[in-house]
Amino acid sequence: xxxxxxxxxxxxxxxxxxxxxxxxxxxxxxxxxxxxxxxxxxxxxxxxxxxxxxxxxxxxxxxxxxxxxxxxxxxxxxxxxxxxxxxxxxxxxxxxxxxxxxxxxxxxxxxxxxxxxxxxxxxxxxxxxxxxxxxxxx
Length: 138
Fold this sequence. Notes:
By secondary structure, this protein is mainly α.
């Protein structure tokens, strides 16, 4: 069974009694915040519309909560002596995904997994890897 069989149909994400409202998961909120620059947008429009402020703030909270569980980032607690890198090699990503290094590079080449090339080597952001894992879970 694939991850797609668990995806909620779009029409089931529309809720509301006094008008349409859309339910968005924390993972989707984190993706939008990262790739659509919602944090900057939230700062730019702050104070213009109370409902919009509240909705964008809620998206930010949902994104932060998802990140704290998906990437292992703690909300609070004593600082760790050494902060793990938010960037992973293709080998590290492959280990976390339980696939081969070649499969990771193929996903990058096919633009299914976001990565940055540094000094001739691919580096994958931990949050992008978490998005990929959630979107392709079996």
